[in-house]
Amino acid sequence: MNVEDVIATGGQEGLPLLFLAAFLLVAIWLGVRIVPQSQKHVVERFGRLRAVLGPGINFVIPFLDKVAHKISILERQLPTASQDAITRDNVLVQVDTSVFYRITEPEKTVYRIRDVDAAIATTVAGIVRANIGQMDLDEVQANRGQLIQTIKLNVMDAVDDWGIEVTRAEILDVNLDQATRDAMLQQLNAERERRAQVTRAEGSKRAVELNADAELYAAEQAAKARRVQADAEAYATGVVAKAIAEHGVEAAQYQVALKQVEALNALGAGSGKQTIVVPAQALEAFGDAFRMLKGRS
Fold it and tell me: 175-187 b/e with 16+ CB inside 10 Å = b?
């Protein structure tokens, strides 16, 4: 046996080992699956669901199991959709909506629904029309947050069997036709004018109330002043009466004469008076007053 025969024989004996090594490498390659963090893999065995592989290193049976679907679990946004709806008060509106969702159970999604985006969009459109049809236009405009929450809950219930989680639902805009816009503008202007009239009326009413309060306060103060003056006059009268009782009629005559003298003084002190006509009784009053003063001294 020569060298060539030995080499040929050794090569033929090592060929099965090479095939075995290659088979083991291929089996390891097919049996080890590395799933990215943002995905889940659906594994089938002979056409049937075998397992769902999560992120990280996973092991499957090579040549029997295969990854049939690679599903992204990242949150997705549906394209902005517009749908017409009629409110309870028969107003046609165009609603722009946007929905965010993510797949949580890929085994349900791949085997129960074919076009996920189209199915969710159709579901959202139907739910939006149904909910807006139960509300008036003013309620749609005023309770948009509540409407969004209701739509989200209804969509979540509808897509739960598909292994989908609706994370967010938004109503971007509610558009009206031009005729409705004009009517709403007229209504808004009328409401503003009504509020302005009410404000003016309330201001006038308040002004009248304040004037009445001011007049009442002035009357009360005047009454208090008259009461004080009356008390002072009563006190003075009491003093005079007491003086009369103690000193007789002369005290009263003295007071009368003193008042006459004070009146004449005031008359003489007036501006622009060049000539003063003094009645005869005034002279007598002066004399009486001086006599009484003299008698008191």
Answer: ebeeeeeeeeeee
